[in-house]
Specification:
six-stranded mixed sheet, 2 helices, 13 strands
Length: 242
C-alpha cells in the first residue's frame, strides 16, 4: 500500500527525502570509516610493529568533550636513532612519564599507544548505526518511490467509495491513536470487492474532505492489493506516520 498527495508533489517530497537520507548515509560512512581506520591501524601496529617505551614530551587535549589527547613522545630505535612522534592517547600521561608504544619500523613516526581501540569502537558503532539506518531508509523510500511511479505511470486509476474515517486501534493508544481512511471499490468485471486503507494520520482527515464521497486510487490491475491513495485534500506538513 502506498499513499500520498498529488502525484507530482508526492514524488517530489519522496525524492527530497531520499536525497537527505543518502547524505545522512554518506555522513554515517565517514564517521564509520575514520575511527575504523584508527582501530585497524592500532591493531596492525600492535601485531606487526615494534614494541618499546618512550618519554612523554607534551600533551594537548583535542577538545573539551573528547576523551583523547594528542601526546608527543620521544624514543630510540634499536639502531640508536632518536624519534619524536605524536598520536592520540586516552589514558592520562604527563610530560616526563614513561609510556608504552608501538611503532612502524619503516616509518617510526607512525605510533600508537594501544589504549584508544575501545573509544574508537564506540564511534564505529555510532557511525555504523547512522549509516545502516539511513541506508535502510534510503532503500525503503527509493523502492516506495519507484512503486509509486510505476502505479502512476502504468496503473489503473479508479474512484473508490469512502466508507469510514476511524482511529487505528492497532497502536493501543486510546484517544491518541492515529487516523486512517478506509475506501471500498467493486470491480465490475468480476463483482469482487476490494478495500483500501490509507496510511496513518496524526490529525482527523474529516474536516478536509469537503463532502467527498469517493477518492482517486491508482491500483495494479493484476494485483489490486498494490495501490496508491492520493489525498491531495490533506494539508501539507508532517501529519502522517510512515
Amino acid at each position: 500500500m502506498l499513499d500520498g498527495r498529488q502525484p507530482t508533489k508526492r514524488l517530489s517530497i519522496v525524492m527530497k527525502l531520499t536525497i537527505v537520507l543518502l547524505v545522512g548515509a554518506l555522513a554515517g560512512a565517514v564517521f564509520l570509516i575514520m575511527p575504523l581506520g584508527s582501530v585497524a591501524e592500532s591493531v596492525r601496529l600492535k601485531m606487526h610493529g615494534v614494541h618499546t617505551e618512550g618519554t612523554v614530551l607534551g600533551r594537548t587535549r583535542k577538545s573539551r568533550k573528547s576523551e583523547l589527547s594528542e601526546v608527543t613522545v620521544t624514543f630510540c630505535t634499536p639502531d640508536g636513532n632518536q624519534v619524536t612522534a605524536k598520536a592520540a592517547k586516552r589514558n592520562y600521561a604527563a610530560a616526563g612519564d614513561r609510556v608504552t608504544i608501538w611503532y612502524d619500523p619503516e616509518f617510526p613516526q607512525k605510533i600508537v599507544f594501544g589504549d584508544t581501540a575501545g573509544y574508537n569502537m564506540r564511534a564505529v558503532a555510532i557511525g555504523g548505526l547512522i549509516f545502516g539506518s539511513c541506508l535502510f531508509l534510503f532503500i525503503r523510500y527509493s523502492l516506495k518511490d519507484k512503486a509509486t511511479r510505476n502505479l502512476v505511470n502504468s496503473g489503473m486509476r479508479i474512484s473508490a467509495e469512502l466508507i469510514s474515517i476511524e482511529r487505528n486501534k492497532k497502536y493501543r493508544m486510546g484517544d491518541n491513536n492515529p487516523w486512517i481512511i478506509r475506501c471500498k471499490w467493486v470491480n465490475n468485471d468480476n463483482n469482487k470487492q476490494y478495500f483500501f486503507t490509507s496510511k496513518d494520520y496524526t490529525i482527523d482527515p474529516t474536516p478536509f474532505l469537503s463532502g467527498r464521497s469517493h477518492l482517486d486510487i491508482f491500483i495494479d490491475p493484476a494485483d489490486p492489493g498494490k495501490y496508491c491513495i492520493y489525498t491531495s485534500f490533506m494539508p501539507r506538513g508532517n501529519i502522517s506516520i510512515g
